Amino acid sequence: MSRDRTLPILGAVLLSVVLAGPLLPQWALFLLTIAIAKGLVALGLMLLLRAGLVSFGQALYYCAGAYAAGSLGRFFDISDMLVQMLTGAAAAALLAYILGFLLARYRGIFFGLLSLSLSMILYGLLVKSEALGSTDGVNVLPSTVLGIRPSQEWLRYVVVVVGGGVALLATALVYRYLRTPQGQLAPAIKDNEIRVEYMGTSVRSAIHVLYVIAAALSGIGGALAATTVGHIDPDMAYWTTSGEFIFITILAGTGSVVAPFLGAMIFGIIHTVAYDLSPNTWQLTLGTTLLLVIVFLPEGLWSLFSRRKGA
Amino acid sequence: MAVVLDARGLNKRFGAVTAASNINAAIEQDSVVGLIGTNGAGKTTFINMITGYIKPDTGGIFYQGRDITALSPREITRVGICRSFQIPQLYSSLSVFEHMMVGLGVVLHNAGLGGYFSRGQPNVPGHDAPAPEVAERILERFGLADYRDKNAQVLPGGVRKLLDIALTMVAKPTILLLDEPTSGVSAEEKFGIMEMVMTAVKAEGATVLFVEHDMEVVSRFAQRVIAFYDGRIIADAAPEIALTDPEVKRYVVGGALHRLDEQQGAPNA
Question: Is residue A31 part of a domain?
């Protein structure tokens, strides 16, 4: 059996970003950071998908993480992006822990639509909330790291490197989780829940744990997006945002923890190019891409890599 | 011998149907008990009540003196009572080896081993070896080693049955309930499968209750037979006595026993 090189590959990618980053244009750094943020959400969705669950409302935790980060600046004047990401993860995880008692009881379409409706409830609450800027949202303070405020020209570089570092750490933790007995349970849950119960473990609590991990990842992603964009609004919880995350997850496939980041990057590129070429029909390009992936690569883009490895 | 499992006065009704009526059975340690009866006689209801899948309306189930009536299936598995299924309950996307590893993972997890922060490969409780080694050992014992990397979906019927039973062994059960271990298996394979299962199970040292329709299999492997009819136990004795009981012959065995008698050259009453 060949040794799994997932984490060294991710480390090499981050290192190349660190080295090549100063040479990249600002827009590319921005695109990269957003891809990392969305990749984190997709990584969480991948965990749920492995257990057969599709959350149509992951934007709930993306938005919760973003607003947690934004509130730190608005109410406590904290702009440190490490603190923001940690708070985003904690807020999302806490919310998911509470909601998980409800959601872990549902499967299939019920799980999907219930998660969607919860994200729309957050959207509705934010729209009505004056303190959090209602539909206009709020601005997020420019990022600082450990008390240092990078100059304007270096800001995007610092954000992508720090965000990438945190994402790598989070991914490494998930990677390790997938190798624990509990982490390996997900495909079995997807295939045959009754048998899993008869083997002596609780499916519901296993799903609850996965749900909280997925939310924490989304929370980090939301906080990173907030500090990158510098502005947050209720649209981050809107169902089309959740749809985007599912798009990325399906595009990427569930073959590896690297896949969601690759998927998010390709999504970002397709989105940007399509919008550039035809601002009114960019959705057409995205839709066609997804259609082609589903028809020709049902296991997602990652299958291109895993197939080559198997050959 | 010590009683390991004791069912006392179990009653269960589903609407107008009586699935269990005053079921009493004390199962002795290390015994092999055959459960017989026509479809709907109450055999599977009995197994489902023991494993916590359905709760009796009245009565109690005791495992080594402990009341387990109210426990859930997963709690009963943890106590040491495992079951196989009439229709094999497998994981269609996993290989045979992965089935074992998932099962052993649950055992490790329940014992608080192999968690997020643990290093290396801990020994699986009861097996005294790391999970991959135990998995290979069980597969070997059940004749599944050749299918190790095959996906569960492509396995032939008899192999699926064996895998379903092998999967129960990861938890090192003290009591094993086999629900029709040879159903859906060709006549030629039946004895081979039962032989292999019984040898493997006995090597692990478990008490066995098995549901079976083939009276030849029952008389060959069971030390004791409990016959069900209409939710009641109509006979509970050694096979040679139970299978010749007039009521059992009338309601359960039917033609099967005649064939058995002819084969064994026994006089047919």
Answer: yes
